[in-house]
Amino acid sequence: MGKDLSKGVSAKIEMRTTVSQGDSTESFVFNEIGKVVYMNGSYYIKYQETYDKIDIPVTFKIDATGGVTLIRRGETTTRMKFGQGERFETSYQTPQGLISLETVTRQLQISYREEPFSGKLQLEYDLYLGQEKLGEHKLQLLFTV
């Protein structure tokens, strides 16, 4: 591969997300320069999303078993886990206090290419607050070092 990913290498990141809630659908695309690190059998893809001039550090962890963790550090830190067909609980700190959310992963696919090293993560999940479905999320993350 030529590059030592254990020290982290710069990467082009393209992140596309679609959120559907009822009849409304919103799509977002981020093109950023980020970093890919390979550590303890997992890939960490790190970049910044910018909303209203605020930079929010985002990390995707893809572990050897194919599980994915998404960590977003804004005013509050969100940590969501995903696994094919799995349901995970996550807590979300809001100014009003801690709320508990659940993710249900409908589809999770990860693929890699060697030259140049790149990866593609496709994820579809539903987000729940208790029994209430808050929305359907589709996410595609592409990275190339």
Description:
The protein is mainly beta and 145 residues long. The chain has a single domain, classed as Lipocalin (Beta Barrel), CATH 2.40.128. It is built from no helices and ten strands. It has strands spanning 9-21, 24-39, 42-51, 54-62, 68-73, 77-82, 87-94, 97-113, 118-129, 132-144. The protein has a ten-stranded antiparallel beta sheet, with no helix packed on it. It is globular, with a radius of gyration of 15 Å. It starts with 8 loop residues before the first strand and ends with a strand.
What is this structure, in a nutshell?
The protein is mainly β and 145 residues long.
Structure keywords:
Lipocalin, 145 residues
How many strands, what sense, and barrel or not for the largest sheet? 10 strands, antiparallel
By secondary-structure content and strand pairing, the structural class works out as mainly beta
> Which CATH-level-2 architecture?
Beta Barrel
Mean pLDDT across all amino acids? 91
Please state the overall shape, judged from the principal axes of the Cα atoms: globular
Low-confidence stretches: none
- The count of strands amounts to 10
What is the helix tally?
0
Strand content: over 45%
N to C succession of SSEs: EEEEEEEEEE
What's the CATH topology name? Lipocalin
Distance between the termini: 10 Å
Topology:
Elements: E1 9-21, E2 24-39, E3 42-51, E4 54-62, E5 68-73, E6 77-82, E7 87-94, E8 97-113, E9 118-129, E10 132-144
Antiparallel strand pairs: 1-2, 1-10, 2-3, 3-4, 4-5, 5-6, 7-8, 8-9, 9-10
